[in-house]
Fold these 4 entries.
Entry 1:
Amino acid sequence: MVLSTFNHIQGNNGSHWNRLMRGANAEKICIVAIDAAKFVNAAMICNVYGDILVKPFEFNAASAGFEKLVKEIEQAREGYGFEEVVVGIETTGHYYEDLVRLCEQEKFIVRIINAATTAKERETVLNYTKTDNVDLMAITQSLLHGRGQTRQEALPLLEQLKTLSRAHRTLIDARSRTVNHIRLYMDHIFREFQGVVETVEGEQVTLKIFWTFDSKSSLYLMRHYPHPSDILELGEEGLRRLSIEQNLKLRDQSIERLIRFARQSVSKSKADLQAELLLLRLKLDELEMETAQVTRVKAEMERVLLQTDGGILLSIPGVGVTTACELTAEIGDLSLFNRPEQLIKMAGTNPIIRQSGGKKATTHHISKQGRADFRAAVYRAGKAMKGQNPAMQKKAEEMKAKGKKMGQIYIALGNRLLRLAFAMMKKKQVYQPESGGKSLQSVIASKLRNKEKQALFFNRYVLT
C-alpha cells in the first residue's frame, strides 16, 4: 500500500504546503519573498526551483509602494505564465501586518515566516551576514522547505480581543512596576508601613498593617499621611474619624499597628524627605491613571468576550475575565483545530519526547517552540487553577506528591485547562462542576458584576 506524503512534521500548515507543491500545476506557482520594514520593504520573485526571476528590489510602505510590488508580480505572471502567487513575509514587529492584509485582498496565498526561522536558515549555510538580500534568500529557502504558516483571515472579534488582552497585560505589568516604585519610596518615608518583624510565641512573624499594599485605605494614607509624624499627629481618635469620613474601614488592629509602628519608626524627618514625598505623589497619580485604564480595557474585554464562544469559559471556577480573554484570543479560530494537542503545541507547552534506536521514549522539558504570549497565558491560567479550582487543586496536590516542581504543575494544569476549553467551546457546553460545588449563577455573579452582562452570558451560553 502506498501512503500519501507524511503528515507533515509541522502539522496542518506543512501538510497544506505539501499538497500545494505536489499539485499538477506546481511549476505555475510564483514565489515572492518580502522583507517587511517600517519605511522601505524589500522583495524578490522566484519560481518553485529557487531560480531568481526578478532581482531584489525595494518598495515603500505606502500605497504607491504596494502598487509597485503588484505591478512586478503581474509582469512576472505574464512573462512566465504563472497561475498562482505565494507570498512569504517575515514577521518584523507589526510592520508586516498591513502587507499581509493587502496581499490577501489581491488573492495571493500568504505564508508568514518567523524571523527565527530565517535566522536558522542562514545558520545552516554558515552565513551570519544579515542584509536585505540575504534575508530575502533565507525567506525564499524557508518557503521552499515548507516553513511558515498559511495565513488565515482573522475573525474580527477575536482580533479585537487579542489586541485588548495584550494591551491589558501590558497595563497590568506597568501597574505592577508603579506599585514597586511606590514601595521603594515608602521604604524611605515610612519603612514600617509595609510591616514589622516581631517575635510572637517564640517565632519571628511579619506583622502587616494592611493585607494588601495597594488597598483603598493604604493608598489614601500614603497620599495624605505618608510620614510617621502624620500618623502620630492624627492619633487613634483622628484615624477613627478619618476612617468614617473617607469610608476606609480601618480595623482596630490596623489602627493600633499604625500608631505603634509610627512610634518605632527609624525614618528621617519629613523635612529631609521632600524629594521622596514628591516622587511618591507622582507615582500615586500614575497608579491612579493606570488603574482607571485597566478598568476601562477590562470592561471592553468583557463586552467583546461575551460575543465569542470563549465567554463560555467563565463557567469554569478559577477562570476569570482576564484568563478567558487571553486564552480565547490566543487560541483564535477554533475551527482550524481538530484536537486539543494542537493548541498545546501552538503554545509550546508540549513536552519534548526523546526516543532513538528502539530505546524507551523519555519526556524532557516543554518545547517552548510555540507562541510566547500564548505560553505565558497558559502558565498564568494554570497558576489561577491551582489557587481557585477545587478539581485542579486536587490534581496539583497529586503532582506535588510525585515530586513535580511548581512551574511544572502550573504548565500541566494550564494544559488540562486547554483540553477542557477545547471540549467546551467545540460542544458549546458550560462547565459541569462536581457535586457540592458552587452554582453557575454564583460563579458568574462573582466574575461579571454587571447584571446586563450576566444576562448576556446566560442568554448566549445556557438558554440557547
Entry 2:
Amino acid sequence: MVDGPSITIVDTDGGVDDVLAVRVAKALTNDSLLVTTVGGNVSAEQAAQTVRFMTDVPVHVGLNPPDWEPEARHGADGVHGAWDGVYRPPEPGDAVNLISKALVMPSSRIICLGPLTNLAAALRGIGGSSFVQTSQVFALGGTKGAPTGLRDTNRNADTSASAECSEIVSWVSMRDAAECSAVDVAQMKDSADYSWIEPFAVRTAQSWGWIDRFPVYDVAVVARALNFTSDLDELIYHAVA
C-alpha cells in the first residue's frame, strides 16, 4: 500500500477533531490516504474502531504511549458515544512499519494528530533523523500564545517521543490552529453530527473565551500539510454529515 508515487498518512488518537480532520484529508487527497492510530484520547485499538466507523477509511493500529491512560474529555470512544460498538477488524500491517516506510519516501506526507509515539518508534526503526527523506511531517503542538491553562496533550502524553522527533516535525501551534479553523456554532448546529461534536465545541470555545465559534484544531494541521489555503470553515461544514 505504501509503494505508490505519493502517500499521506494521518496518525490519529481518535478524538472529535481527529475524525473531522480525517474526513477532510479524505476529501482533499487524490493520492493514497493511510490512517494509523496511537493512544491518546482513547487507546490505539479503540481509535481504530472509532475512526473506521466515523470515516469509512481503512485504519492500521499503532502504539499506546508508555504508561498511557485514556483522556476522558471525548468520552470512552473518543466521540462522545457516537461509535456504534460494532467491532471491525483493522487493516493488516503494523502502523509503525507504515510510517517508517513513509519517512524514507520523498513524496510522502505524515500528519500527526495525537502523541508522537508511533512517529518516534518509526524514526528509531529507520536509524534516526539522518535517514529521513520526506520533508513533510506535521504535528499539532505548542501552547505559546494560547489561553492560560490550555493543555498540550499531544506533547505531554509522550514527552520523550516529542523530543525525539523535534528535528523532523513542523509544529502547528494550538493558537495558529484555533485561529484558522474556527467555525460558526450556528451553522454546525444544523448538521446531524452536532450531537457528538457539541461537547467538544462547548469546551474548546470556552477555552478561548469565544461565544459563537469554536476551533477544530486538527483540521488546521491537515490543511497546512496539504497546502490548502482557502477558507477552512466551508471545508469543515462539508466534513459533517
Entry 3:
Amino acid sequence: MSSEKPILVVVGATGNQGGSVISHFLSLSSSPYALRGISRDPSSSKSVALVARGVEMVAGNNYEPSSLDAAFKGASVIFCVTDFWAAFFDPSQREKAVASGISIGEHCRSLEVRQNRNIIDAAAKVSTLERFVFSSMPNTNKISSGKYRNVYHFESKALAEEYGRAAHPNLWEKTTVLYAGLYLENWLDTLGASALLPPKWSNDRDELVLPLLGPLSDAPFPLYSAVDDTGALVHTILHADPGQKVIGVNEWLSIKDIAIILGQALGKRVEFVQGDLGFDLGDPDLTKEMTEMMEFCVEFGYDGAMVDNTIVKPADLGVPVHLQPVKEWCAKQDWKSVLQVGGN
C-alpha cells in the first residue's frame, strides 16, 4: 500500500468489532491511518465492499504464520479479534472434536488459542509496530479455581493473552487488552428466544414479560455495542497509555434494567414474573457453556473485576470518549421486526 500515513491493520475486519474499527476511521474527515484489513478470502463480498470504501484488503490466514508476516508488514498499529463461534457451529469441526474424544468447546478453545498465538508471534516480529490492541476475555477457569471450567469462548482468548504477556514482554509493553462487554447486538438476533436475554413479547397482553431468574436478574452486566462503539473506543485506546486492560461498556445494567429501557423505547409496559434459573439452548454444549458464563458473571463479574482489580473503564483512560447510552442505542433499532410487536 502506497501511503504516507501509518498503517492500522485489522484482524477480523469483516466482523463486528473489527468492522467497527474500520468504519470509525473511515468516518473521520481525515483518518490518521491508512487502513488494511485481513481476510482469508479478499475476493469475498464483504472484503470487496471494504475495498470500495478505500480499505486495502490482503490475504491472511490465522492458521498460517507466514501469511500473517506478510499481512502485518509495515504496520504501526494492529487490532486483533478472533471468532470462537464460527468453528463451534461448523459441523466439520464437531466431527473432528468427536474423533478426538473431546467436546466441541474444548476443540474450539484449542483452535482459537492457536490462532491468537500465531497472531501474537507475528505481531512481535513487526519492527514498525507502535501499538497492539488485543481483544480478549477473562480466564473464567483460573479466576474461579476450576469452578467454571466450561466457558471456553472466554478461556481461549485469555490463554492466548497470558501467552503473549509471558512470551513477548516487549510486545506487551505496547499492548492494550480489550474485554468486549455483552453485545447489545445480540438482542437483535435472540431476544425472546435466548435464555441469556430473556425479555419476551406477550401478544395477548401487549407487553414485555421478563422472567425473574434469582440473582441473575439483578446482577450488573457491561452492555456494549460492538458494532457502533468499538471503533471509537479503540481510537481512544490509541491515545491512552498502553499496558492496560479495558472493559468495553456503554453502561453497566441488570437484566431488569435492560427490560425497562426496552419497554421505554417501545412505549410498552414491562411485567416481571417468576422464572427458573435453568437454561436450555437446544445444544448441551452450548447450554453448559452459557450457563456457566452467566453464573461466573454473577459471582465474579463479567470481566472478573471482583478478583482482577487492574481492569479500567473507558472513562478512566484519561482520554475523552463518548459511548452512547443504552437507551439511545435501543431507540435506533427496528424492534418491531425483531419482536413482531403487535403481531399474532
Entry 4:
Amino acid sequence: MSEFFGLKSSSSATPSDMAMRKEAMMQNVRSEMALANAQELINKAGEKCYIKCVTKPSTSLSGSEETCLSHCLERYIEAFNVVSRSYSARIAQEKDSL
C-alpha cells in the first residue's frame, strides 16, 4: 500500500518527507472537495432555478425566464458564498481555540 502513495518503504522516508507528502495529499483532497462542491452548487442551482423559472418548457427561453434564471443563479451563488465564508470562519475559530 505504501507503494501506492509513492513511498518505497516507510523506513527510508524522513519525517520531513512524510510531512511534505501528507500536506500534498491533504491539499489534493481539499482541491477535489472544492471541485465537488462547485459541481454540486451548479447542479443544484440549475435544477432549482429551472423548476422555479421555466414554467412552460419550450425550444427557447423567454426574456422573463432568462431574467428569472439570472437572478436566481446570482442569489444562489451569493447564499453559497455567505455560507462558505461563515463555515470557513467557524473552522478557523475552532482551530485557533485548540
